Amino acid sequence: MPRRYTPQEREARAREDYHDPTAGIGGAPAARSALTMRLILASFGLIACVTGAVLFLTAVIQPAIAAVWAFFAAVALADLVVVARRKLRGEPG
Residues near 90 by Cβ (< 8 Å), separated by ≥ 6? Predict the structure, then answer.
């Protein structure tokens, strides 16, 4: 069972420099995650890979290549889930 965080802990975890161990060194600004761009790219990758898998399975009849496309589609889906959870948690980006 996952640990439940208090609202204060969630707020602290959602701060911009939470994942950046080098924030502030040498006057550098805190790193910002481009979660929205990553979400868009993962969505595009999922659509493209599913389309590729279906085309190679039906039109070209190459199940090995279709399996590779399906694997990449699964990776894109996993990335979508991770990014969506991070955005729902309140991380900026």
Answer: 10, 11, 14
Rounded average pLDDT over 25-29: 63
Say if CB 10 and CB 89 are below 8 A apart: yes
Which letter does DSSP use for residue 59 in this model? T
Q: Per the structure, how many domains does the chain have?
A: 2
Domain extent at residue 26:
1-32
Q: What angle do CA 7, 38, 3 make, to 5 degrees?
A: 30
* Same domain flag for 15 and 44: no
Which residues 6+ apart lie within 8 Å of 73 measured at CB? 45, 46, 49, 50, 53
pLDDT digits (tens, 9 = 90+) for 47-76: 999 999 999 999 988 999 999 999 999 999
Q: Is the pLDDT of residue 13 over 70?
A: no
